[in-house]
Amino acid sequence: MAFSLLDRQSAIDPDSPGHVPAHFHAGFQFSNLQFQYPTANSPTFNGDFNLEGYAGQSLAIVGPSGSGKSTVIALLQRWYDANGGHALIGGVSIRDYALSAGLRSHMSLVGQEPVLFDMSIAENIAWGSEFSATIEQITDAAKQADVHDFVMTLPDGYNTRVGDKGGHLSGGQKQRVAMARALIRSPKLLLLDEATSALDSTSEVEVQRAIDRAARGRTTVTIAHRLSTVKNVDRIVVVNEGRIVEAGKHEELMQMRGIYADMCRQQNL
Ligand SMILES: Nc1ncnc2c1ncn2[C@@H]1O[C@H](COP(=O)(O)OP(=O)(O)OP(=O)(O)O)[C@@H](O)[C@H]1O
């Protein structure tokens, strides 16, 4: 279940004080994790959830609907606190970071539905840097997200207004502007929750190309139902009933002939 950044309600004060690391180390570790949503009747993770994300590597989390994939991202961003076990980033408990300055400023999320504002393309991208970016930084982020060439075809270039909710742009163009917005702050941790799942296959290829490039050498967590989009990540984990049941590269998981291989077969991969 993917929630957009703007829709989230969290009990945690974004200005809460805490650790502001000089160098944010994006490797993370969940061990014996327990977590239950405040309004849920049963836990999502029951103390048997163990997951490590290695710094500089791309990780994909796959598994059945409702298995807790998006919850991992919500916990990394500290929209909620774990109820038990350990949730660490860079060896530090997630709850010990200063929420905005220490934690969230080092990560970017790209979700299924990009939230663009009725402003120019430049402003929509600069939003990711809290409007502190120069035009060079904006164009650089746009190039990384493979949207610069498209922007250059527009009569007003970066000054083009995208319309209400980005309505003047196609789904793929919107998503690449959202990628540029995510990349402008050079996030140490890039979180992608079904970032290509709402796109047609041509747009999916374009956005996926930008994602693959952005993920190179960066700690990245990808959630995707379409397994073709995660074949090339460094490590895939399969979550089921609150725990990781398989982990490895695509080829290794295929050889296991387990849940992942079954899911691939269902998708004709
Ligand atoms: N805000 C919330 N409040 C209460 N329960 C929630 C909330 N978000 C998710 N859940 C529940 O927690 C469990 C895990 O949800 P999560 O969204 O992490 O699963 P998912 O694997 O990402 O699913 P999907 O593939 O459908 O997106 C589900 O049972 C879901 O109903």
UniProtKB/TrEMBL annotation:
PROSITE patterns listed in its UniProt record: ABC_TRANSPORTER_1 (PS00211), ABC_TRANSPORTER_2 (PS50893)
Protein name per its UniProtKB record: ABC transporter domain-containing protein
ABC transporter domain: residues covered: 28-266
Keywords from the UniProt entry: ATP-binding, Glycoprotein, Membrane, Nucleotide-binding, Repeat, Translocase, Transmembrane, Transmembrane helix, Transport
Membrane topology summary: Multi-pass membrane protein
Subcellular location: Membrane
Domain of life: Eukaryota
Keyword Glycoprotein: yes
Organism: Geranomyces variabilis
One GO cellular component, as annotated: membrane
One example GO MF annotation: ATP binding
